[in-house]
Amino acid sequence: MDIVFEKVEHVYNARSPLARRALYDVNVAIRSGAYVAVVGHTGSGKSTLLQHLNGLLQPTSGAVKIGEETITSNKRPKQLKPLRKKVGVVFQFPEHQLFEETVEKDICFGPLNFGVPEDEAKRKARELIKLVGLSEDVLAKSPFDLSGGQMRRVAIAGVLALEPEVLVLDEPTAGLDPRGRKEMMEMFYHLHREKQLTTVLVTHSMEDAARYADEIVVMHEGTVWGHGTPEEMFRDADKLAAIGLSVPETVKLKQQLEKRFGVVIPSPCLTLEQTAEAIQQLFSKVSVHD
Amino acid sequence: MTNHLIIGQYVPGHSVIHRLDPRAKLLIVFAYVLIVFLANNAATYALLSLFALAFAALSRIPFSFIARGLKPILWVVLFTLLLHLFMTKEGDVIYQIGALSVYEGGIKQGIFISLRFLLLVLMTTMLTLTTTPIEVTDGVESLLGPLKKMRVPVHELALMMAISLRFIPTLMEETEKIMKAQAARGVDFSGGRFSERMKAIVSLLVPLFISSFKRADELATAMEARGYRGGEGRTKFRQLAWKPVDTVFLAAVALLAALLCLLRS
């Protein structure tokens, strides 16, 4: 589903002394099937932006178009429910949303809310528990007997069970160990490719943004500061540093090498593999000169 | 939702009321709440209102702000007024609507009782508007100090109060987060059948309880790690200091009480 933000503004506690403008003049287009990373400093409006994607927040002015649906300030909240089936949101620390007696029931909770028949929902739960890397006998356990990492996986399965067309991820790996982090990001990427999802990832990790995203949206003080491919966005490290963001370590290395040796490395160096290859090429050139 | 409820909210300021010792403020409000019940005629109610209004004026908090905060209780006041208007049967009949008749005593009683209610809420609101929760807690602990001799765990009670006040905003934030997460999974908090509503509430309360217990556990560990072990021999970071102005205000309340005793019929 294509997603278009048109002049979106969001003011919290509008028309009160506590009014606070969190977003203004946001114009972004996300094409169907894209993997988009949203980065920005704390308080830049990332989370507010994200909540517009499934109508948890409505713009105070402007419009958000998601597929056929258009969300404006005067849309009634009731009309937004169908949208929530199409747009699945994995919030920060999603394990906090678990509440059922068994893992199976918790995964089925979402689908049942949207009127999916029970045996269908259960079938999906069995399928998803394997997809998120847990074994089927976890289904019968209480979610509160699981470890933190396992709970996170169950909660994510609960969102995936809605079979959304758009998957929104808010710092899905916060608080996980490096291995769990990598596994989870790989899983989302795999899903993105396999099910042709439109994925929106809110993250602090420039490395993840560089590795997985087709496009990066940089938020700064409530509006879009920049939008482009990772290569474009990470070209100017100083400009990013000015708004409190950095470039991935690999890009840093590339830029330092270029400066130090006065060479141009053609590779964008967005991942470790790319960087290793680029450096190898650089050295082979040097040895030819010798 | 919370925008209009100012009861329990603190408005920072440097007025004479803000700077009163919290113990003095607690005593003033407590005494006021008691002596409100002494009033029973126009003169005494006028005197009480004058005192409350003067107190509010001295706090330098805009009247419009206080009035807005009192709005939610207006319905209760109105209900009290009407109840007394129609239920009290004293004095002459002033007005007759069908089977209902309004007596002179009813009007008087209605106005007095709703005024009493309004004054009570106004004064207690003034306490929380001008005193931070932590000051209130310190004040309560200090005032209840003598009970320590009777083995009442005053310090622990005050600590409980401080902790619960501290975590109200945290809990509200948490509630909102969980509601959003469940709404994203198709929960409809605003309507639906009874059974659906129950399910919606369970999906909110269970995670909320679990996170609260977890937080309590973490807090206890953090306190233990920093060597907290109750009020025994514990010194205070915030020292309460009784000033002459506190005595003046307390004397004013005593004077008010004496006048009320004289003027009541």
UniProtKB/TrEMBL annotation, chain A:
<comment type="subunit">
    <text>Forms a stable energy-coupling factor (ECF) transporter complex composed of 2 membrane-embedded substrate-binding proteins (S component), 2 ATP-binding proteins (A component) and 2 transmembrane proteins (T component).</text>
</comment>
<feature type="domain" description="ABC transporter">
    <location>
        <begin position="6"/>
        <end position="246"/>
    </location>
</feature>
<comment type="similarity">
    <text>Belongs to the ABC transporter superfamily. Energy-coupling factor EcfA family.</text>
</comment>
<keyword id="KW-0472">Membrane</keyword>
<dbReference type="GO" id="GO:0005524">
    <property type="term" value="F:ATP binding"/>
</dbReference>
<dbReference type="InterPro" id="IPR015856">
    <property type="entry name" value="ABC_transpr_CbiO/EcfA_su"/>
</dbReference>
<dbReference type="InterPro" id="IPR050095">
    <property type="entry name" value="ECF_ABC_transporter_ATP-bd"/>
</dbReference>
<keyword id="KW-0067">ATP-binding</keyword>
<dbReference type="InterPro" id="IPR003593">
    <property type="entry name" value="AAA+_ATPase"/>
</dbReference>
<dbReference type="GO" id="GO:0042626">
    <property type="term" value="F:ATPase-coupled transmembrane transporter activity"/>
</dbReference>
<dbReference type="InterPro" id="IPR003439">
    <property type="entry name" value="ABC_transporter-like_ATP-bd"/>
</dbReference>
<dbReference type="GO" id="GO:0043190">
    <property type="term" value="C:ATP-binding cassette (ABC) transporter complex"/>
</dbReference>
<comment type="function">
    <text>ATP-binding (A) component of a common energy-coupling factor (ECF) ABC-transporter complex.</text>
</comment>
<keyword id="KW-0813">Transport</keyword>
<keyword id="KW-1278">Translocase</keyword>
<protein>
    <recommendedName>
        <fullName>Energy-coupling factor transporter ATP-binding protein EcfA2</fullName>
        <ecNumber>7.-.-.-</ecNumber>
    </recommendedName>
</protein>
<dbReference type="GO" id="GO:0015087">
    <property type="term" value="F:cobalt ion transmembrane transporter activity"/>
</dbReference>
<dbReference type="InterPro" id="IPR017871">
    <property type="entry name" value="ABC_transporter-like_CS"/>
</dbReference>
<dbReference type="InterPro" id="IPR027417">
    <property type="entry name" value="P-loop_NTPase"/>
</dbReference>
<dbReference type="Pfam" id="PF00005">
    <property type="entry name" value="ABC_tran"/>
</dbReference>
<keyword id="KW-0547">Nucleotide-binding</keyword>
<dbReference type="GO" id="GO:0016887">
    <property type="term" value="F:ATP hydrolysis activity"/>
</dbReference>
UniProtKB/TrEMBL annotation, chain B:
<dbReference type="InterPro" id="IPR003339">
    <property type="entry name" value="ABC/ECF_trnsptr_transmembrane"/>
</dbReference>
<dbReference type="GO" id="GO:0022857">
    <property type="term" value="F:transmembrane transporter activity"/>
</dbReference>
<keyword id="KW-0813">Transport</keyword>
<protein>
    <recommendedName>
        <fullName>Energy-coupling factor transporter transmembrane protein EcfT</fullName>
    </recommendedName>
</protein>
<dbReference type="InterPro" id="IPR024919">
    <property type="entry name" value="EcfT"/>
</dbReference>
<feature type="transmembrane region" description="Helical">
    <location>
        <begin position="107"/>
        <end position="129"/>
    </location>
</feature>
<keyword id="KW-1133">Transmembrane helix</keyword>
<comment type="function">
    <text>Transmembrane (T) component of an energy-coupling factor (ECF) ABC-transporter complex. Unlike classic ABC transporters this ECF transporter provides the energy necessary to transport a number of different substrates.</text>
</comment>
<keyword id="KW-1003">Cell membrane</keyword>
<dbReference type="Pfam" id="PF02361">
    <property type="entry name" value="CbiQ"/>
</dbReference>
<keyword id="KW-0472">Membrane</keyword>
<feature type="transmembrane region" description="Helical">
    <location>
        <begin position="29"/>
        <end position="58"/>
    </location>
</feature>
<comment type="subunit">
    <text>Forms a stable energy-coupling factor (ECF) transporter complex composed of 2 membrane-embedded substrate-binding proteins (S component), 2 ATP-binding proteins (A component) and 2 transmembrane proteins (T component).</text>
</comment>
<feature type="transmembrane region" description="Helical">
    <location>
        <begin position="247"/>
        <end position="263"/>
    </location>
</feature>
<feature type="transmembrane region" description="Helical">
    <location>
        <begin position="70"/>
        <end position="87"/>
    </location>
</feature>
<dbReference type="GO" id="GO:0005886">
    <property type="term" value="C:plasma membrane"/>
</dbReference>
<comment type="similarity">
    <text>Belongs to the energy-coupling factor EcfT family.</text>
</comment>
<keyword id="KW-0812">Transmembrane</keyword>
